[in-house]
Amino acid sequence: MQSNATRPEVLRTRRGLGVYVLLAASVVVLFGCAFRSLILDPDSIRLAGSADMNWFFGPMQFFFDSRLDLGDFPLWNSMTYAGMPFAAHPLVMAFYPPNLVRSLMVTANAPVDTLFSLSMLSLFHLVLLALGMFGLAKEEGLSPSTAAVVALSTTFSHPVLFGVVWNIAFLYTVSWVPVILICLAKAASAEELRRRIGWLIIGGLLYGLQILAGVHQVPVYATLA
After folding, report:
1. How far are the Cα atoms of 44, 106, 172, 199 from residue 148, in angstroms, in the given order?
2. What is the reported pTM?
3. Percent share of the chain, pLDDT over 70
């Protein structure tokens, strides 16, 4: 009897997970269509995007990758001017766990290796943003189809795609906003104190991750939201 009673709940859970998987797959496919040269032929370009990506983020992350390859955590950059702090610069994202994992996994023999790994990290954050927006829209009472439209339109909006090819730190920081707002909404609606505190702790940890991603204006905006 208990098994029959819980079966509809299991089916709903599986259906809900299926929607999230389908949404994530859609983001991957659309990303591949929009930035196919970054994935299929990364050797044909120097670095992704232009301006800040070419002149700042790309070289900075390649320096970070190459120093970690040598077993050295780069606290100082002796290649700029007469030398300057490196890891302490927030846009280096040296202490941002996803970027640190990326850098440890890549063997940066050439800048193109860093380029490809940054493209994959950008894809991870686009998927995170899409799933977060979908969950937030459903939390606000929207239907799954409307929530999917909200998620995809946000993920592939101009400011977000601007982050892929110009300012990756902005993309990495803003991707956590909807997930943090979901935690706050869950905490506000929770009836049990234990659950409320739990959601607040999770939201606080994600807020810390967002700060480590480098663009500190975005956490301020998230706080005001």
Report:
1. 34, 33, 21, 24
2. 0.88
3. 88
